[in-house]
Structure formats: structure tokens, C-alpha cells
Hints:
By secondary structure, the chain is α+β, with helices and mostly antiparallel strands. 44% of the residues lie in helices and 25% in strands. The protein contains three helices and six strands. The chain has helices at 2-7, 15-46, 108-125, and strands at residues 50-54, 59-63, 69-72, 77-82, 86-91, 98-102. A hairpin with a 4-residue loop joins strand 1 and strand 2.
Amino acid sequence: MFVIASVLPxxxxxxxxxxxxxxxxxxxxxxxxxxxxxxxxxxxxxxFDADAEFSETGIVLRHRNKDVVETxxxxxxxxxxxxxxxxxxxxxxYPGFMIFLSKERLKGEELSFFRRMGERVRRKSS
Length: 126
């Protein structure tokens, strides 16, 4: 973008500011929409529609769109991230995906369970 800005600078600003404006415009107009639409496409191709039950021993996935029940161990989860509004479980599966749980819908003991499991997953991965 800085090369384009040096050839075609915006009027009344130098090429560094022009390059920054070009970069932000490219990011907003091309990169972010492309990322969004590729994510939507990936979700449609995966067709992952399941109910998950979490326990100390593992994770049970009951698929709604087919009669399949999967049992996964906690080694399937690469990390558990607890943010301000959600609990995110990142899987080791390819293509990788994440399971988002709203903190508002979790009870106190469920949230402490995910904190405990997050520590366990972190210890096993290091």
C-alpha cells in the first residue's frame, strides 16, 4: 500500500498517511468481508449441529442432523479461554473450530468447572 501511496498519494497528505489510509481501506473493504464470508462458508460445509455435554472424563456430542453420538476426551480441546462474556473452547480438530458458551447462561459451578478444566488442559499442553 505504501508503494501505491508513493505513486498515487492522496492530495494534501504525505505518502505515509496515504499508505495508511489505503491500507485501512483495503482492510475494511476486502480483507474483513473475505474473512467473514469464508467463515460463513466453512460453517456451512462443516454442518456441525450438536448438543454438547461436558464432564470431568470427556465431552459427549449428540449430533442433531444425524443419529451420531461422539465421545471426545479433553485432549480434543487445545485451550479454554474465558473472556468477559463467554467461555471459548478451541479444538485440535482440522479444520479447527471453536465452541462458544455464553457466560450469562452458565451457572457458577459450571463456570468454575471450565476454569478448572482450562487449567488442566493448559498443564497437559505445556
